[in-house]
Amino acid sequence: MLNFIAAASISSFFFGLFGVSWESVDDKIRREFPSVKSVSTDQLRSRYEEAGEILPLVIDVREVDEFGVSHLGDALNLETAQAIVNMVAQRGLGKETEIVVYCSVGYRSAAVAADLQELGFTRVFNLEHSLFDWANKGYPMIDSSGSTDKVHPFNRAWSVLVDDSLHAYPDK
What we know:
Blueprint: H1 2-16, H2 22-32, E1 37-39, H3 41-49, E2 57-60, H4 64-69, E3 76-77, H5 81-90, E4 99-102, H6 107-118, E5 124-127, H7 130-136, E6 141-143, E7 146-148
Parallel strand pairs: 1-5, 2-3, 2-4, 4-5
Antiparallel strand pairs: 6-7
Helix pairs in contact: 5-6
């Protein structure tokens, strides 16, 4: 039932929005996931640039095809809260581990962040505006061949939030 509710919510978001904007995305996230804390792309980028800064675990919750087009250099691709829980346990880390989750615009990652909070994780942050904002700012990303400036546009509605020149799809 929970999966159905999540699918219905996501579907209504995808197909119910006209004139998609960052404001509408932000409103949707705040309304549906009010307890989820966020970190901006600028804040995360600053942490990467500061020598000696201890970085959080960075988790890309997008699908494998999206991750293959581009992702943050040190990101792990884990699509669900349970996959993240399993990875944290395998590494011998605790629920106080700092984790930043991201997706295309921050909606899917906010859902995963909320799930992690429900499972007792205390330092989980959603990357605000996620990879689209990161790409729009020209921050570094990689693919399997190295550096890239391309990003998977996810779907027609959300693709308007990332510059057209940055769109790319996986090679099939």
